[in-house]
Amino acid sequence: MGEEAGRDDPQKTVTVGVPKEIRAGERRVALVPKVIGKLGGRGATVVVEAGAGAGALIPDEEFTQAGATIGDPWACDVVAVVNPPTTEQIGKLRRDQVLIGFLSPLTHPDTVAQLRDAGVTAFAMESIPRISRAQGMDALSSQANVAGYKAVLAAAEHSTRFFPMLTTAAGTVKPATALVLGVGVAGLQALATAKRLGARTTGYDVRPEVADQVRSLGAQWLDLGIDAAGEGGYARELTDEERAKQQQALEDAITGFDVVITTALVPGRAAPRLVSAAAVQGMRPGSVIVDMAGEAGGNCELTEPGETVVRHDVTILSPLNLPSGMPEHASELYARNVTALLELMVTDGDLSPDLSDEVLAKSCVTREEEGS
Of 6, 8, 211, 246, which residue has the fewest beta carbons closer than 10 angstroms? Predict the structure, then answer.
């Protein structure tokens, strides 16, 4: 019976398009050759724009060898992207298409409005709920792992001091001390990476329940007596009294570290200011701050998003889009996230997203019916 049913429409297939990313400095691609066979098993074929994988060092030939075709991705049933589409790109979409990608629904409402007006059903990767069965689709976490790793390497590169303790004929050099502010996925990866490089690590977060995770990585926990646990694994915004208490306590603590890496974000809001100008001034000359929250304004008062500056003999880096600096692995991880989401929508060549499913319902930011 199942075999006969599979013959009802042998040509039925869903097409998934992968455009070339056009954001300046972006090297990732939404799908990679390794996942194409898995999508084919669901009855989906992949169409890749020529050169889409070049930034991630994936030539078109690798895509075609995996079963994809090179062509127009915007004509497909589903379009998978990394970054929010531009107005021009949205103009290429038709009313019955599905779009998947980082769409910044909280910070770029105009993009969402344009997609809604175009009648596109759009799924935002950053809106996928953080529940157990959606872990394989959690692109925020996969890319945060890459960012946390790269942030520590950037700190080590700009530091004037060794990370590990060195014992030499000329004497012993003490290990660097590193403080990570905000220990979500990126922060935990930063702590682990700094520890591997030999630094003495300390973590801080306004959610005290993550203290055990910090200690499990061999790091110390900086306890300031503030609890601001929020929904979905994120921190809530602090009250004015809590913020003042935190600011003074952090100002006192930060001056004792050689490296400070900040990752603190509140969804849809400007990044909280954790490192004051006074704290920077109190740090030892040659110290380094890596502010990973630059795209949301930065956690350091002296941060210039996207720039590297020196203030009071302290180097302050605010790199944007850190995952793009490791395009091969970042693309591979992201492609797995997108594929896992597509597997909820595509069965036997039929594209039918069930919006009663919690994962799809919460990640869907526009629906085709809304624009009808």
Answer: 8
Q: What is the pLDDT of residue 187?
A: 98
Contacts of 69 (CB under 8 A, 6+ apart): 45, 46, 47, 48
Give the whole-angstrom CA distance, residue 222 versus residue 208.
10
Report the candidate in 114, 57, 54 with the shortest Cα–Cα distance to residue 84: 114
Query: In angstroms, rounded to a whole number, what is the distance separating the alpha carbons of residues 225 and 242?
Result: 10
Q: Is 130 an annotated catalytic residue? A: yes
The residue from 135, 215, 216, 269 that is catalytic is 135
Q: Is 234 a catalytic residue?
A: yes
What domains can be seen in the chain, in order of their start residue?
A: 12-138+326-371 (3.40.50.720), 146-324 (3.40.50.720)
Amino acid 312 reads H
Instruction: Tell me, yes or no, if 141 is annotated catalytic.
Output: yes
Quote the pTM value: 0.90
* Active-site entry in 114, 127, 141, 331: 141
Give the tokens for residue 73: 């991705």
| Of the candidates 98, 99, 39, the residue with the CA atom closest to the CA atom of residue 67 | 39
For 151-177, what is each residue's pLDDT tens digit? 999 999 999 999 999 998 999 999 999
Residue 308 reports pLDDT greater than 50: yes
Say whether 367 is catalytic: no
Distance CA 225, CA 206 (A): 8
Strand positions, DSSP E, the chain: 14-18, 44-48, 69-70, 78-80, 98-101, 121-124, 166-168, 171-173, 177-181, 200-204, 220-221, 259-262, 288-291, 308-311, 314-317, 346-347, 350-351, 364-366
Q: CA 101 to CA 34: how far, in whole Å?
A: 19
Active-site residue among 234, 236, 281, 311? 234
Q: From the candidates 138, 205, 258, 291, give the one annotated as an active-site residue.
A: 138
Q: For this structure, is 212 an active site residue? A: no
**Catalytic choice (94, 130, 133, 269):** 130
- What's 275's DSSP letter? B
